[in-house]
# Entry
Amino acid sequence: MRLIFLGPPGAGKGTQARIIEERFGARQISTGDLLREHRARKSELGSQAEGFMQRGELVPDALIISMIESELDAHAGTGFVMDGFPRTIAQAEAFDALLTRKGWALDGVVLFDADRTTLTQRLTSRWTNPRNGRTYNTLSNPPRVIGIDDEDGGPLVQREDDKPETVATRLDVYEAQTKPLVAYYRAQGVLIEIDGLAPVSDVTSALIAAVQKRGE
Ligand code: AMP
# Structure
C-alpha cells in the first residue's frame, strides 16, 4: 500500500498513519518525526532544520527531498504512508519523479478535512510520547494518568511548536504552501477526502473503505 496523507497539522494524519502501519505493514514515514530525530541526535540536517521548526515554518525543499530519498532507499520494498510530506508543489513534483523512477504507483492521497478553530484546540491540547511519537489529546483522547503514557508508563511532553503562536503560523503556512496540493492531486485523480474530525475508529474505517474502493 502506498499512500500520502495530506491535511493541516492536527487533523489526525499521524494517528491514522500509525494505525495503517500496524494493520497493513505500510511504513509510516513522518518527515516531522524524522526531523525531530535528526535534531535529537544533533546531525547536520537537525541543526539546519531547527530554526525553521521552532518558528513553525517549512524546512527548505532540497533538505526534505534528499531526506525522503535516503529514507525510501533504506526501506525499499515495503509500502508507505507519507505523513506530512509532500508539503509544497516542489516537493510533490520531486516525489512524482521519484515514484516514476522507482516504477511505483500511489494507491491514493487522503485529504484530512478539519476547521481551523478545532485544529488550534487540538494542537494546543496535544501531548506526545517522545519515545515513539504516540499522541494523546487532553480534550478528546486523554491518557489514563495526565502526563503519563498508557502503554510504556513514561512521561508525555508537549511539542515546542504546539504553543499557540507557533500553531497559528503552522496553520497559515499550511494554507499558503500546502493547500495547493489538494488541486494538484485532484487533477491527478488520486484524491480521497475524509472528515478528519470524526472519532478515530470512524476515520480509520472511512479511509480504508475509500482506498479499497479506489483500488477496485
Ligand atoms: P509535523 O510534525 O509534520 O507537524 O512537522 C513539524 C515541523 O517539521 C514542521 O512545522 C516543519 O517545520 C517541519 N517539516 C515537517 N515535514 C516537512 C516537509 N515535508 N517540508 C518542510 N518542512 C517540514
